[in-house]
Amino acid sequence: MERKTAKEFDQELLDLYDYYVHGQIDRRGFLERAAKFAIGGLTAAALLEMLNPNYAFAAQVPKEDARVKSDYVKYSSPEGSGEMRGLFAKPANATGKLPGVLVVHENRGLNPYIEDVARRVALAGFVAFAPDALYPAGGYPGDDEAGRVMQSKLDGKKITEDFVAAAKFLHSHPDCNGALGVTGFCFGGGIANTLAWRLPDIIKAAAPYYGGQPQAADAAKIKGALLIHYAGLDTRVNAGWPAYEAALKAAHVEYEAFIYPEVNHGFHNDTTPRYDKAAAELSWTRTIAFFKRKLV
Length: 296
Prior knowledge:
Elements: H1 11-21, H2 27-34, H3 44-51, E1 68-77, E2 82-91, E3 98-104, H4 112-123, E4 127-131, H5 144-153, H6 156-171, E5 176-185, H7 187-198, E6 203-209, H8 216-219, E7 225-231, H9 235-238, H10 241-250, E8 255-260, H11 277-294
Parallel strand pairs: 3-4, 3-5, 5-6, 6-7, 7-8
Antiparallel strand pairs: 1-2, 2-4
Helix pairs in contact: 1-2, 2-3, 6-7
């Protein structure tokens, strides 16, 4: 199937899709409002299908890639959901302990795109761990729409504690040298910001992508460095950036922020039309370089 690009869709339709995937309108609301863009024999349902992820594209580092060892491992989350599970990945040729990077998924569970990102992190020379917030409900269901519904029904506080526990698990893992970073996307970007202040003595570097921002009092607790990525067209998330930046400056937190012009929320996700190759590759080059500088 040919990969569609954001430029093939009206920006209003892309914004509607963003509202839909973040629960601000339901499927019926999206289809009703998208109907005016359904021309040339297309239906609103067909437009939704085009905008949804196609995981055939999420194979930059396939699970069969001999350069990376990956497996699902369980960990304990006593303050959260109890038993949890995630994908652990490391370079196949690793001979000693390596810095660790926690990879946090979007609001739909551990899908193939995030698993691929974890393997990319491992290939760059880190031990990576990507937990699945949906594990207590049976795990990522193989469908993003179902995954969003599942995640929305879980206890948000427990989910946060599950990721706090995951960071502690990776930090103390025998393959990790104790230098820990975190990256995350959308919901995961918000979790990356949260872990930076919840675990200031553990998280040395956080690279959130288009993530929700913490309150100023919490931002002031951050001790690690931040590399923050935003999409220029993402007015929903970007609205919180000025206050966050002011809080970081007031607290003398080390940070660098990039707003990538004319790209949409989700621009790093290479399975959807919102993917922007130039912004994704540039931001990822910056992220890996950031972790290599800070996780020493």
